[in-house]
Amino acid sequence: MDSSTGSGQEVLRLEKICKKFGDVQVLRGLELSVNVGEFITLLGASGCGKTTTLRIISGLEAADSGRVFLDGKDVTGLEPDKRDVNMVFQNYALFPHMNVEANIGYGLRLKGRSKPGVKAAVAEALDMVRLSGYERRMPSQLSVGQRQRIAVVRSLVTRPRVLLLDEPLSALDLQLRRQMQTELKRLQKRLGITFIYITHDQEEALTMSDRIAVMRDGIFEQIGSAADIYDRPRTSFVAQFVGNANILRGRAVSLGNAGDGMKLLIFETSAGQACLECRAPAIPVPGEFVTVAVRSEYVNFEPAGRETAPLCLRAQVSEKIFAGGQLRITARLLGGGEITASRLGIDSPLQIGQHVTVTWSAPSQAVLVDVPPALSPESPL
User: Between 3.40.1160.10, 2.40.50.140, 3.90.950.10, 3.50.50.60, what CATH number should domain 240-375 receive?
Assistant: First the structure.
């Protein structure tokens, strides 16, 4: 179902993991396979089950049912210290009474490493995060970013099979957060350790991950590469949660050949007709209801009466907002609903209240979503 990266050798597998807290079903039969050296991100809103999943992998929480495998061994019933897994928490959890050297070397000392061995490993770890010479400092003498780096290398220095990171960058300001994203990815690639990372920040997930598992209400809505998740969302939830795509609903009208095994589908809404490309077996029958996602950066607005495309939707501009270096223009579709276009620049000649036609440059820029699993293009024929 999902393509993995890394060595191709499985290091972690979750089988049908379920968990309830009281009457609330937090996890609903999670299935996940992670390869050695992979950076996989669990992406979702607060309360979707991300942290509970990490705690079950680490052994800090017990699943109600299902199994956890590490290197092919069932570790479901093992205590946390019997699993070759470390965890980095949101608050970093450094020992306040220990200096940097003691904090980093703590796990190595527990494993019986000699004093010279611990000292050498700590020096190497500090060099990796550009903090050489900080051995004697106390956590209270470090900046937030420095504490975050120490927490990460403390977890990495024992070379665990899997490192779990629970929103480790959430307390950082934007500039430092982006810097640390690069730092973490560099460390992970250098050491070849499997990272399972939690965030609710879609940009962070798209930037750092080999694969992304989008979570919603205790299930994985979709697992795939950043390109899969962004360009080929399978559900309207994924399309809107990652990149804020426009969702259009209508009926299939007709089919034509688009080449390379693709079909050109024309669909109709109350605002007009538009087209997209789809591949068997996910090809609707004319007259069937369809749900379509199209990213705002692909949407074009033209003043009404100047349309050049034979297929277009009709709308009226309702809002213009400049934010994050982009201008977002929202229009009310004829018959109901809204559609948004985004572009570089701080303004547009389009005016609030102006009637426009809506198109996108290529049929491939629109995607069928919410297709029944049996008809998914990824399903076996």
Answer: 2.40.50.140
